[in-house]
């Protein structure tokens, strides 16, 4: 089955000159990797946050959002995640995409220019209409939440 391709206009800012555009790193990848557009390396100490620029602005089509998600390799090997995971780039936002990295690992982590720091995924977003009601349909789960199914 052929996948639908959605065109996403992207503006490369001067501080990202020479960096590759985001790209899929394998044929089956869901997200395109984003690269750090730093002029000099940034050290992220354990327990701290750093806002990393990508040097990109995009025009997300109406009806979509661009989700910014962590890279599993950075999380598994270094404890690096995204503070607001997933981050959302709305269809009406035209500023630079920046990634909020957090170091949850035990040692300092350094981000250098051109490092792959996150991934972006384009997702359809249906509009909602809330319908106030006094009752909701019953389910087997009911109000169970926050660990209601146990540990094992």
Tell me about this structure.
The protein is mostly beta strands and 152 residues long. It has one domain (10-124): Distorted Sandwich (Deoxyuridine 5'-Triphosphate Nucleotidohydrolase, Chain A). Helix content is 5%, strand content 33%. The protein has one helix and twelve strands, in the order βββββββαβββββ. It has one helix at residues 72-78; strands spanning 10-12, 23-24, 32-35, 42-44, 49-53, 56-58, 64-69, 80-82, 87-89, 98-103, 109-111, 116-124. The chain has a five-stranded antiparallel sheet, with no helix packed on it.
Please report the number of helical segments. Answer: 1
Question: Remind me, CATH topology?
Answer: Deoxyuridine 5'-Triphosphate Nucleotidohydrolase, Chain A
Structural domain tally: 1
What kind of sheet is the major sheet?
Answer: 5 strands, antiparallel
Please identify, by name, the CATH architecture. Distorted Sandwich
Radius of gyration from the CA trace? 19 Å
Amount of beta strand: 25-35%
Q: What is the approximate shape? A: globular
Helical/strand content category: mainly beta
Q: Tell me, what is the CATH class?
A: Mainly Beta
Q: Assign a percent range to the helix content.
A: under 10%
Taken in chain order, the helices and strands follow as: EEEEEEEHEEEEE
User: Based on DSSP secondary structure assignment, what is the total number of beta strands?
Assistant: 12
Strand order of the largest sheet: 2-3-12-7-9
